[in-house]
Amino acid sequence: MRYLMMTRPSTTAPDERMYAEMGAFIEELTASGVLLATGGLGPEEIRVVSSGEEVTVTDGPFTETKESVVGFALVEARSREEAVEVARRFRRIVGDGESVIREVLTP
């Protein structure tokens, strides 16, 4: 099963220890085939809305800063519990904050 893990912004400033632990964590997950993709997201948003034949494009941002998503990881896990454990390990490295996990539905 694939899961999309999204991270909201935090007030914890990264330091050298965090970068080293995160690098080792990413290498481990990549080598094991769990981590499929990861990245940070820029602050700009573009909203595309369709209604009938009309498509409207609006530049953002649209959400409160604390509600936005600043990073993501796409993981392949054997179970929901495994995905939650990956997220727990991530939160222990980066400190206080919030992450959201959503299963990626495939046909």
Task: Please outline the helices and strands.
Blueprint: E1 2-7, H1 16-31, E2 35-40, E3 46-51, E4 54-59, E5 71-76, H2 80-94, E6 99-104
Antiparallel strand pairs: 1-5, 1-6, 2-5, 3-4
Description:
By secondary structure, this protein is α+β, with helices and mostly antiparallel strands. The chain has one domain: Alpha-Beta Plaits (2-Layer Sandwich), CATH 3.30.70. The protein is built from two helices and six strands, in the order βαββββαβ. The chain has a four-stranded antiparallel sheet. Strand 3 and strand 4 form a beta hairpin. Belongs to the YciI family.
Briefly say what this structure is.
The chain contains 2 helices and 6 strands. With about 110 residues, it is an alpha+beta fold. The chain starts with a strand and ends with a strand.
Query: In CATH, what is the class?
Result: Alpha Beta
Tell me, briefly, the overall form.
globular
Order of helices and strands: EHEEEEHE
The neighbouring-strand order within the major sheet is 2-5-1-6
- Low-confidence regions: none
Structural class: alpha+beta
The biggest beta sheet reads: 4 strands, antiparallel
CATH fold category name? Alpha-Beta Plaits
Strand content: 25-35%
Count of separate DSSP helical elements: 2
CATH superfamily: Dimeric alpha+beta barrel
Query: Could you tell me the radius of gyration in angstroms?
Result: 16 Å
Mean pLDDT: 91
Family: Belongs to the YciI family.
Domain YCII-related: 1-92
Protein name: YCII-related domain-containing protein
Organism: Streptomyces alkaliphilus
